[in-house]
Amino acid sequence: MLSVVIHDKDLYGYISTTEASIPMMQMFALIPWLIRLLQSPLCKAMMPSERDAVGLGPIIAIAKRVFVERYGHSALVRKYMLGSFVRHGLEQKEAEAESLVQIIAGSDTTATALRTVIAHVATSPNIYKRLQNEIDTATADGLVSSPVADLEARQLLYLQACIKESFCMWPPISGIMPRISDSDAIVCGVRIPAGTNVAWSARAVMRNHDAFGLDADIFEPDRWLNADSGRFQTMENSIDLCFGQGKWGCLGRPIALIELNKMVVELFRR
What we know:
Blueprint: H1 4-7, H2 14-30, H3 41-46, H4 56-71, H5 81-87, H6 92-122, H7 125-140, H8 150-153, H9 157-169, E1 176-180, E2 185-187, E3 190-192, E4 197-201, H10 202-206, H11 209-212, H12 222-226, H13 229-240, H14 253-268
Antiparallel strand pairs: 1-4, 2-3
Helix pairs in contact: 4-6, 6-9, 6-14
């Protein structure tokens, strides 16, 4: 839809605009009353517009054109995310707003994880050699096809350790993640009254020495291969937080993991 990959260029300045906007998004998440400022006439005039040449404006314009096709008199019905919005009764304006969130949340996060894997493996000769050897051996033994299937990639244990470790080094989510408690609770000996806004830092959780060891700040895939079942589950539960839990859980998690499995294998096998 955006033709960024085809042209190998940030055509509308979307990527740079998103990177600049994320800190502001985090601020609004932490201080919700600031959102009211966006409703003022002055701020509305400064918001992205479909008439803009760069930034989120052109993306809004493209999204609206697509939504006209899906909500018009001769609406196209297809089995993917937008079709799901339509089937579940979202009005056109609601779906347009939701789609912009999905584009940011579904692309930047996976890209962050992929860049982290590539950067840490490529700059660690021993790790690079072990991952390359695992992929090459599996290819020679006919255990992985071309392109690799997700199920095949999941059997490459060192690959999985590298991907999991990347979540610890640079979690795809940033800032602190606020949640409001539904009822009174006692967590780790601390009483949390109902209605309390509680936040957690992904970076702090992923570098927790109690969970990952004293070398938590070092990219070390072997921690996943050498851990006993208890330690492994603790680490697994920690990185699961990158995808959220309950009703806040990431619906795109299966797709994100498939993308990581396939892209890392296909990149390093070449």
